[in-house]
Amino acid sequence: MTELRRIPFKAVVVAVFLACPSLARASTRCDLPGDNLRVCSSCFDRVSDDALDVLKPVVGAEEHRRWHHNWHLLRYRIAGDVKALSESPKGSTERRLAQDELDGWRDMGLLVGDAQEFSKLHSVSGEISGEDFLYMHREMLKMEQRMLAAQGKPCVAGWKELPASISDHSWPAPLKAPDHPTGDSPSAFWQKKLDLLRRNDAMLRDPKYLRLVSLNHMAQDVELYVHNVLHLLYSDAASHCHGDWDASSTCDDLMPPWSSPLNPHFWKIHGHIDDFIGLWLEAHDYKEIASDCAGRPACYQWRGTWVGKMDMSAHR
Ligand SMILES: [Cu+2]
User: Which of 83, 108, 96, 92 is nearest to 5 (CA)?
Assistant: First the structure.
C-alpha cells in the first residue's frame, strides 16, 4: 500500500483554550439543527480537560488521525492526480506518483469507483463536496456527543458568535507572526483578519444570501471563508507536535487534520460551522435533514455523505 503518511503536512495544512472552570455554564446549543440526535444531558461553552480526556483516545488514535488527514488531503489532490494520469506520459514519475496516491486511498476505503467521476463529485470544488464537508464533520460532532454523554460529561457547544477580539477573555487567539508581511503589528494583523472573518461570517448568515444558494454552494463558501480562516487564526505558533506523524496525545496542532480534532478549538469551530446547516434549512423552509427522508415533507435529503470507511457510529 502506498505510504500516504509521508506526504508533507504542508500539503494538507493549506486546507485546512483553554478551560477555565469559572466560565463553565450551561447552554442549550448542543442540538444539531435538523437532526434528531438528543444524547446530551448538558451542554457547556468550555471544553474541559475531562472532555478532552474522553475524546483524545479516539480522535488521537493513529487510525483516526490518518483517516481525517487523508479525507481532507484527497479533496485537494484528487483532481491533480486524475489529470496527471490522463496527461502525463506513460512511465513518468508524475504518473506513477498519482497512481500510487489513488491506490493508497482505495486501500484505505476513501476512494471508490471511477477516480475521475469521484473527483467530479468529491474534490474540494466538486458537485457535492460542500455537503460532504458539512456531513462528515457533523458525524464527528455526533461521535463527540455520544462519547461524552456515555461518560456522563457535558457536550461542547460551538461558538454561537465568533469572538470579537483576538484578546477575548475566554478565547484569546494565540499571538503569532503574520502569515504574510503587511507592515502591521502581529496583533493588528490578526485583529484585522478576525474582523474580516466576522464580516464574511455575517454575510454568509444573511437569509437573503442563503435563500439564493444551494446547501453545497453555501458549504463551499463557509469552508473557504470561515472554517479555513478559523483554523489559521486559532492555531498556536508553538506547535505541540514533534514531527509530521506524531501520534502522542499532546500533538494537537489546529492546522493539520492529523492533529486538529485533539485541539479544543476544533469543537468550538465545528459547532459554529454546523449551525450554518440550520440557517440554510430555515431559509429554505426545511425542518429536517437526513440521509434518507423517506418522503417526509420538509425534509432535505443529503446529497453529499462521503465519509469513507470510518465508522463513527461505533462510539454509541
Ligand atoms: Cu476535518
Answer: 108
Cell numbers at 16, concatenated: 485546512
Tell how far the Cα of 296 is from the centroid of ligand 1, in angstroms.
30
Paired strand residues for 156? 44
DSSP string, 147-187: HHHHTTPPEEPPPSS--SSTT-SSSPPPP---SS--S--HH
Between the CA of 67 and the centroid of ligand 1 the distance, in Å, is 10
Q: Is residue 130's pLDDT more than 60?
A: yes
CA distance 123 to 256: 18
Full-model pTM: 0.90
Average pLDDT, the chain: 91
How far does the centroid of ligand 1 lie from the alpha carbon of residue 137, in Å?
Answer: 6
Rounded Cα gap, residues 224 and 258, in angstroms: 19
- Fill in the amino acid letter for 147: M
Distance 156 CA to ligand 1 centre (A): 17
DSSP state of 141: H
pLDDT (0 to 100) of residue 239? 79
